[in-house]
Amino acid sequence: MLRLQGINAILGVILVFMVLHLSFAPEHHDIRTTTTTMLGGVAFLLMTSSVILATRLSIFESAFGGLDRMYQVHRMAGTFVAVFALIHFFGVPKNIPEGVDPIANSLAPSSPLGMASLVFLVIGLFIALNRKISYSRWRMPHKAMAIVYMLVIGHFMTAPGVFFERFSASGFLLIGAAIVGAIALAYTMLGMNRRTAVPFTIEAVNRMERATEIVLKPQRDMIDFKPGQFAFLEVQGKGWSEPHPFTISSAPGEDRLRFTIKVLGDWTRKVREELHPGGEALVRGPYGRFDTEKARNRKQVWIAGGIGLTPFLSMLRGMEAGDERQIEFVYAARSREDAIFLEELQAIAQKLSNVSIHPLFSDEGEFARIEVAKQKLADPLATYEFFICGPKPMVDGLMNDLKTEGVARSSTHTEAFEFR
Ligand SMILES: Cc1cc2nc3c(=O)[nH]c(=O)nc-3n(C[C@H](O)[C@H](O)[C@H](O)COP(=O)(O)OP(=O)(O)OC[C@H]3O[C@@H](n4cnc5c(N)ncnc54)[C@H](O)[C@@H]3O)c2cc1C
User: Fold this and answer.
1) What is the DSSP letter of 378?
2) In principle, which of 183, 274, 397, 419 could form an S-S bond with 71, CB 3.0–4.6 Å?
3) What is the pLDDT of residue 1?
């Protein structure tokens, strides 16, 4: 679940900036200059937040409720950056006021830098929000946003004082943000957030009906993770390009790491068609806060749709006899054949007295809707804690139904399988 600490911190800094900017506005600034430069500053602070979140530092995970939530905030901040930057651009006066020395207050290079950053920003946002563009094609232009960030710093650091006093209270705040942002950018661009990469040997590639399971043997240490967490998997070798996020489907304590992967695009298809045992893969992580342990004292409903099974797979594989949680596990798949690992799950549930499995097959007319779940549950919905992972339409539909049924938002937990 999205935690508000991180968002509140971002809003807090923006608020301080706005108060400083409005309280100490130079006398020679008219209201239009003051407001439009303030919006430009807000856009820059949001951009800086995005840059900081892109470091993937684990301290931010707890403030935002997990890396997937950090990416959601990163994306939302990006959209607001473009909106505020556009208002700033169209609103800010374009000419030096009469009577002001045009040489001492030259608009060059601030103006062209601002213009260039706005054009790249809008193009970048269009690419980022266009889901038809595959992740690997989206990645390079997205990385180019680092240049845009530096252009924006250049823009306000060279702005003439007649429009923006950088050595003012709000200006100092922006300079401070620029220093922190530049450090964060260098950290990400130099690959320092990759330091935790742990090498594994690809031991097996098991092609199942609708998914591929990769079994990895540690070359040195096994990574330490909790069930439900995910990691970035980077296959070594030509043509394998960028790391991709996958939930760890093995249990902590196993001597192998397993990922279960569904074909959803070019990279995942390549895994299914071309990956062979023997190669090397780097694993970075773990990340994520999809943790059913945090609601130990509550009865739980787990709902998995298709490949959204993977976090629950790890949880069940790692569950010990005597676990006190009462768990109703609704596993929705297109058909009986699509329901990978169903037999293994049923065997685990038989050994544990606290888990009941309710498979739903949409080709038999059973969908993961709350009406169906209600029939399977003995007690009122509001008495359970819900953990949901699956395709976005399924998750959104269930969340709406649960809200309508009066289940508190704080009792529902979801894992998003996409970062864009
Ligand atoms: C937290 C999390 C856990 C996941 N767990 C699983 C799992 O257990 N099993 C499974 O099959 N799938 C899982 N996914 C989805 C998986 O990451 C994507 O299906 C896969 O990366 C698609 O890559 P592609 O090139 O084949 O497809 P593309 O068409 O290029 O990508 C499809 C979508 O996947 C996402 N994506 C692709 N590449 C990346 C990347 N390098 N980094 C971040 N996001 C990317 C983007 O949202 C993109 O729009 C998970 C995703 C996330 C975010």
Assistant:
1) S
2) 419
3) 59
Torsion of CA 276, 277, 278, 281, to 10 degrees: 80
Intervals of CATH 2.40.30.10 along the chain = 196-287
Pocket flag, ligand 1, residue 258 (CB < 6 Å): no
CATH of domain 196-287: 2.40.30.10
CA of 259 to the centre of ligand 1 (A): 12
pLDDT number for residue 65: 83
CA atoms within 13 A of residue 87's CA, in its CB half-sphere: 18
- The reply to whether ligand 1 has any atom less than 6 angstroms from the CB of 244 is yes
Nearest CA to ligand 1 atom 52: 417
State the span(s) of the chain assigned CATH 1.20.120: 4-193
DSSP string, 253-281: T-SSEEEEE---SHHHHHHHHH--TT-EE
CATH 3.40.50.80 in the chain, residue ranges: 295-415
DSSP string, 279-297: -EEEEEEEE----GGGGTT
Q: Are 122 and 148 in contact (CB under 8 A)?
A: no
Residue 40 in contact with residue 33, Cβ under 8 Å? no
- State the CB neighbour count (10 A cutoff) for residue 140: 10
Q: Who's near 20: CB < 8 A, 6+ residues apart?
A: 168, 169, 170, 173
Protein residue closest via CA to atom 17 of ligand 1: 245
Question: Is residue 314 within 8 Å of 247, Cβ to Cβ?
Answer: yes
What pLDDT does residue 195 have? Answer: 60
H-run or E-run covering 357: strand 355-361
Output 314 or 1, whichever has higher pLDDT: 314
Judge if the beta carbon of residue 242 lies within 6 A of ligand 1: yes
Q: CB of 312 closer than 6 A to ligand 1?
A: no
Is residue 298 within 8 Å of 384, Cβ to Cβ? yes
Looking at 3.40.1130, 1.10.3470, 1.20.120, 3.40.1440, the CATH number of the domain 4-193 comes to 1.20.120
**Which residue in the block uniquely carries the two structure tokens 């329901």?**
339
How far apart are alpha carbons 205 and 268 in whole angstroms?
13
| Side-chain half-sphere exposure of 63, counting CA atoms within 13 A | 16
Domain boundaries 295-415, corresponding CATH code:
3.40.50.80
pTM of the predicted model as reported, rounded to 2 decimal places: 0.83
Is the minimum distance from the CB of 418 to ligand 1 under 6 angstroms? yes
